[in-house]
What we know:
Layout: E1 2-4, H1 16-27, E2 31-34, H2 41-50, E3 55-58, H3 60-63, H4 72-87, E4 92-96, H5 117-135, E5 140-142, H6 155-165, H7 171-185
Parallel strand pairs: 1-2, 2-3, 3-4, 4-5
Amino acid sequence: MYHHILIPLENTSADETILAHIKPLARMGYSFDCWIYCPQLDDVTAFADAVPECKIVLNHCGGIVGINAYKKDDVFPVWKKSLEALAKRPNVYVKLGGLGMRLCGHAFEKLPDPPSSQLLADIWRPYMETCIAAFGTNRGMFESNFPVDKGSYSYPVFWNACKLLAKGASASEKADLFYGTAQRFYRLEGIAAA
């Protein structure tokens, strides 16, 4: 079963109010979709430690922020370190996508033409490969972020970029990334892949 809650994740390990709501959901078999900004990744780690019985999925590669005071080149190593620490929690999974939002700092909206699938794959590769290396394909799943990402590229262009990113993966790894992990995480095993 799936339950999506948007909560502030500051000092979550010490916030008994939040934990009091999440723990019963975990006991009932619900999972928790977590969308945060990358500076909050360590808070998610503390949260995952506080509720190890709860299956958590981190949305949008951990909420990359690369605009304004957050410079992409400075953010990447900090994000990577925090993401790798979070990935050591076996109850946490990651959704691979959401990188078309303006806040990521890729500036797709400033291009004279929409980006190609190859350009997306090239720009996203460091983020996607870091996530997959940290979580493995058995805890990683491609996700679209539509309609939000529609301002940067089309739906087919996104999925073709994912195919390019998965080009070197084995058949079982591709199955995990494109549908298997999502089937297991959301308990959708009875639903056949398209």
